UniProtKB/TrEMBL annotation:
Keywords: Antibiotic resistance, Membrane, Transmembrane, Transmembrane helix. GO terms for molecular function: ABC-type transporter activity. It is found in: Membrane. This is Transport permease protein. It holds the Pfam family ABC2_membrane_3. It comes from Microbacterium dextranolyticum. The chain crosses the membrane at residues 21-41, 53-78, 99-125, 131-157, 164-184, 220-241.
């Protein structure tokens, strides 16, 4: 069986395993929409302006994918490594990459489902009205630009134990969400914070998705940054996985 075929099997059973705990699925779906209702909908200045409303919806969608990557992958992987099942899987002939790809793919599927109620509420109660093609482009790009967040989750889950992973994930989510301009628009940032924010993968993902949704030109610095982060984080994730294998399973 090829790595991709094995990854599809891992994706299927990761989704089945998650579906066996309904509150986990409900929480993943409801949390982003609840955050949108609590933080964005009460602000009539934002919801009444098409540009601001579209940017706000895009920001919360990027937040949903980032939170899924950090919590679903980081905490789940750290917990898996602490149980006997993970060492047993490492003794099988299948590639470890298939297990990681399957976990990332299953997380992306759940994040896509979580995006649906958010888009519905954004369409019904705000002035956000992206066209069909910009909307489709933004959805495709939000998936692609979520890869760095997923890889950060892989790194956390591989480098830390379950208890430490919780603390690290919380700190990372706070830094990336606020530093990336997902809760406060970068227009409110001082110059030094805006410059630092542009170096974060979440800020780059936000700018790419907003530009696609509004039909504006995607900034080149964001494209270069997200590609660079993807390569660097992928190399770090592979290195940590091999180091973990050498320490625990050789």
């Amino acid at each position: 069986m090829s790595t991709l075929a094995l990854a599809a099997v891992h994706t299927k059973y990761n989704l089945v395993e998650t579906a066996r705990i309904p509150i986990a699925v409900i929480g993943s779906i409801v949390f982003p929409t609840l955050a949108f209702c609590m933080f964005v909908l009460p602000q009539s200045t934002v919801t009444g302006d098409p540009g601001y409303a579209t940017a706000a919806v895009c920001s919360i969608v990027v937040f949903a994918f980032m939170a899924s990557g950090l919590f679903s992958i980081g905490l789940d992987l750290a917990e898996q490594r602490s149980k006997p099942w993970a060492p047993y899987l490492r003794t099988l002939p299948g590639s470890p990459a298939a297990r990681m790809i399957g976990l990332i793919a299953a997380t992306l599927v759940i994040a896509l489902v979580a995006m649906i109620p958010l888009l519905v509420i954004g369409g019904l109660f705000t002035a956000a009205r992206p066209g069909v093609l910009p909307l489709v482009s933004a959805i495709v790009l939000v998936v692609l630009t979520a890869i760095p967040s997923m890889l950060i989750g892989v790194i956390i889950g591989t480098a830390f134990g379950p208890k430490a992973a919780i603390a690290v994930t919380q700190v990372m989510m706070f830094l990336l969400a606020f530093g990336g301009g997902l809760f406060l628009p970068p227009l409110m940032f001082p110059d030094w914070l805006d410059a630092a924010s542009r170096a974060l993968p979440v800020r780059q993902a936000r700018e790419i998705v907003i530009a696609a949704a509004t039909g504006e030109q995607i900034p080149l610095w964001a494209i270069g940054g997200i590609v660079g982060w993807t390569v660097v984080l992928a190399v770090a994730a592979v290195w940590l996985a091999r180091r973990d294998e050498g320490r625990r399973y050789r």
